[in-house]
Write a structure and sequence with these properties.
The protein is 39% helix and 22% strand. By secondary structure, it is of the alpha/beta class. The strands form 2 sheets. Strands 1, 2, 3, 4, 5, 15, 16, 17 and 18 form a 9-stranded mixed β-sheet that branches. Strands 6, 7, 8, 9, 10, 11, 12, 13 and 14 form a 9-stranded parallel β-sheet that branches. It is globular.
Length: 441
């Protein structure tokens, strides 16, 4: 439909003033043309979606996800990061076929979209990255995706994940040429060296150069685990983020997942360079990594957004769960007024949009922006009575309350039914591929 009208909901615009509106939200050809009040269709080709008893809000933007890992859900419980990587996740990724990766990505897209996530920053595995882009394209998901880059000579890395520096760079450049700006700019590329311990300095430096040459994002993991940062210090002679800074791997185009164990110099670097922190509370708690001092980082002016990470370390891709946890876990250390619901929702929408370099297009419901929005049913007993819409969205609402999803003006989920993915086939194929893959392993 050229025009989509969302009618009768309570609208969390997430604009600069955290304005709440009532009435219609309308888009024409994917662009928001009205937010609040009554809208009269301008074209005969339009659709009206009932949002009575519901919140209308920007779609969630998850800034750190691994769609490639979804088939390993529940396979890596009760482990810390480096054991988790070496014993389960890297052998799993090294064994993935292209068809396995497609099944994993389709399942991830199904979970993300039906749960209210409309945009992601995704790190794939070393091979078959086209399958991730194809899954995002078919599902309607807005996605910035990069192949994981791993060129360090390390006997603990499975053969299926080993690559030369030049091969890694060549494949990343090819993917960027093929996919960056694809599907009317809904699909974009991000250079994604996995982390310092699996990448040579040459790879990291050249990734920075190539990403900035092409206008792509930069995405890696940083300072997640104490054993990790100790090993980085042993090899490089300095702290993790400080070392990345020497390679040019900081700045407004740089997205660093986790950032749990930072010294004061590194916090200053984050602030002064405008680098984005990608906070993944469920993953950090499950892997016993700890959690970043997010209220302190925000107070100092550091940019923060939210992500679920991957299914083996979470075990869900539920953006509403991440919001609730992010709002709760910091209060014992920083007080009950830290992380108010409105701020947490901002991290999950505008914060993610900024991390993706798309804040001028998505993350809030404002005229001229793209129509990425969700309708959340708040009539259930876990939401009623409704007194504060931000509190309801962050503390009470669940991903299963998402009733409608619109991405780039296209209705992707209507009345909780996804229109772009054959749900039953997707679930069946995911289970089949997971069973066969782990039988091989």
């Amino acid at each position: 439909m050229s025009e989509v009208i969302i009618r009768g909901g309570s609208i969390l615009t997430m604009d600069d003033n955290f304005s709440i509106a009532t009435g219609d939200v309308a888009s024409r050809d994917g662009e928001l043309v009205q937010v609040g009040g009554e809208y009269t269709p301008q074209d005969s080709d339009y659709s009206i979606i009932d949002a009575s008893g519901s919140l209308v809000m920007p779609g969630l933007v998850q800034s750190h996800v691994h769609m490639c890992q979804t088939l390993a859900r529940g396979r890596a419980d009760n482990m810390e990061l480096l054991d988790w990587l070496h014993q389960v996740v890297w052998p799993y990724e090294g064994a993935l076929t292209r068809d396995d990766l497609s099944a994993s990505a389709n399942l991830a897209a199904l979970e993300l979209i039906t749960g209210g996530t409309t945009s992601i920053l995704d790190m794939g595995t070393v091979h078959h990255t086209d399958a991730l882009f194809e899954a995002a394209q078919a599902s309607g998901l807005r996605a910035t995706i990069g192949k994981a880059m791993m060129d360090e000579e390390d006997p603990t890395i499975p053969p299926g994940l080993q690559e030369s520096t030049q091969d890694s760079l060549d494949e990343s450049q090819r993917l960027c040429r093929d996919w960056h700006g694809h599907s009317e700019d809904r699909l974009r590329y991000g250079y994604a060296p996995r982390f310092v311990l699996s990448c040579t300095d040459e790879l990291m430096k050249e990734s920075v150069r190539l990403a900035r040459q092409s206008g792509a994002r930069l995405h890696t993991h940083t300072s997640e685990n104490r054993s990790e940062i100790a090993e980085v210090k042993r090899r490089k002679g300095m702290a993790n983020l400080a070392f990345l800074h020497t390679l040019g791997f900081t700045g407004d185009d740089v997205c660093l997942a986790h950032c749990i164990w930072l010294n004061e110099e590194e916090k200053s670097l984050l602030r002064d360079t405008g680098t984005h922190v990608l906070h993944c509370p469920s993953s950090n708690m499950k892997l016993a990594s700890g959690y970043a001092a997010i209220p302190e980082l925000l107070e100092s002016g550091i940019k923060v957004s939210l992500g679920a990470d991957g299914a083996p370390c979470n075990n869900s891709l539920d953006g509403f769960l991440e919001m609730r946890l992010a709002a709760l876990i910091h209060k014992p250390n920083f007080g009950p007024t830290s992380m108010p619901a409105s701020q947490v929702l901002k991290l999950a929408t505008r914060g993610g949009a900024a991390a993706l370099g798309l804040e001028d297009k998505i993350g809030s419901l404002e005229l001229g922006k793209r129509a990425d929005l969700i309708v959340v049913d708040i009539s259930g007993p876990h939401c009623v009575p409704v007194s504060n819409l931000y509190s309801t969205a962050v503390y009470s609402a669940r991903s299963s309350d998402v009733k409608h999803v619109i991405i780039d003006g296209e209705v992707i989920v209507r009345d909780r039914e996804i229109l772009t993915i054959d749900k039953e086939r997707c679930l069946r194929e995911a289970q089949e591929h997971a069973n066969k893959l782990f039988a091989r392993l």
